[in-house]
Amino acid sequence: MRLVVDLxxxxxxxxxxxxxxxxxxxxxxxxxxxxxHADEAxxxxxxxxxxxxxxxxxxxxxxxxxxxxxxxxxSGVR
Length: 78
Ligand code: SF4
Known about the structure:
The protein is α+β, with helices and mostly antiparallel strands. The protein contains 2 helices and 4 strands; from the N terminus they run E-H-E-E-H-E. It has a single domain (2-61), classed as Alpha-Beta Plaits (2-Layer Sandwich).
């Protein structure tokens, strides 16, 4: 699975690091480190983290599925 965190939106609340510590980690007080290619086995944790994020900064993308329409953010065009 593939995930993207909008770091402009992320406020460093660390909910994700608490709920999915194998995928997200806080680095210092505000910066977030994460694995953008989390394992399928971590999907449940990641989905929980995405739901819990107070600013909805975590987006899960599945390259195998049809691309989900972006919410007015990035378009798929390079
Ligand atoms: S829960 Fe959301 S706001 Fe908090 S650190 Fe994670 S991505 Fe950032």
